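User:
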Amino acid sequence: MTERILLVRYGEIALKGRNRPFFLQALTRNLAAQAGRPLQIRYHFGRVLVHLDWEEDDSLIDRLRRTFGVVSISPALQVPPRLDAITEAAAALVARALGRRAAVTFKVDARRADKRFPLSSVEVNAAVGRHLQERFGLRVDLTAPDLTISVEVRDLAYVYTKVLPGPGGLPVGTGGRVVALLSGGIDSPVAAWMAARRGLVVTPVHCYAFPFVNERSKLKVVDLCRVLAGYAGPLRLWVAHFTEIQRAVQLVVRVDLRVTVLRRMMMRLAERIARREGALALVTGESLGQVASQTLPSMAVIDAATTLPVLRPLVGMDKTEITARAREIGTYEISILPYEDCCSLFVPAHPRTQPTLAEVEDQERDLAVEPLLAEAVERSTLQEVSPRESPELLPARLA
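Assistant: Predicted structure:
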């Protein structure tokens, strides 16, 4: 009997030993959440087999393959492990492929994992290839074929023509919870994406300084969260009221130290929200040496404002690498929209690149830190951002 399935491959999860069931359960749960319906699933030797009882849906497959933990997905036909069944499945897939695009050359790529099958992989290639050549008049090209028909012979046989890459990593929910400082720029959405890719549940916090910035800057962050939610599931976005903090820093802090003090206030604010969310660490989009606040002395002074660990997934990446990843995951085109965030305002011409903790703490003595933070948390808003809603500003380009 022929069944339509999705062959889901996972990589790192296979190395988890006795903890593998925990990670597979999380992956299954996240796949079902992406699908928006219960899934009929079977596990088999490094594969998750999702049985489809509906017509192949490109939108569904695209959502599932964005699930963290998925290395790749192949829509496949599952047939009994017999040569005639494999050949018929291959012919059906070739006929379908030729109906969608022209192809002149092909190859068959068979793998016989079950050694009880009477033919070797090479013999399966030859037998199935000969049938397809006679039936469709295609020419064999083993180097650069227009069409590749893959066959996996296991307890059953699986035949497919497409391998769609996923993001890899670990399923969201297996690594704990963090709060990510999210601006409207290029870097921080990539950092949040990379944190979620390691299995962390990410709660974004955006420091919003209206009327220093207009409302569209906030909508831009919401749109970025929608793209991220397409990978990680719905996000709880905190829009933190930062106006009074920004105003106070402008009034009492020396010009060249304002960026450092603002970053320290953001850390303190994020820590308070993290305590409410049960998060154990903060995530930022800083990359070492990129701007004045991202030197090692600056990072040390900024980190001293919080007792939580600060994770910087981008610390070893340069701007070209970060931009490439932003394009790949679909946040770049939203990030470059010309709406400022509070991080980019009031940046002095010559900020300190090597501040000391003593001089920064001296500048903060005239700041009413605790009342400012209490007011900021009190006036913050929280909203759930779903991946299925359309972005407000610009359709996110899918990777």
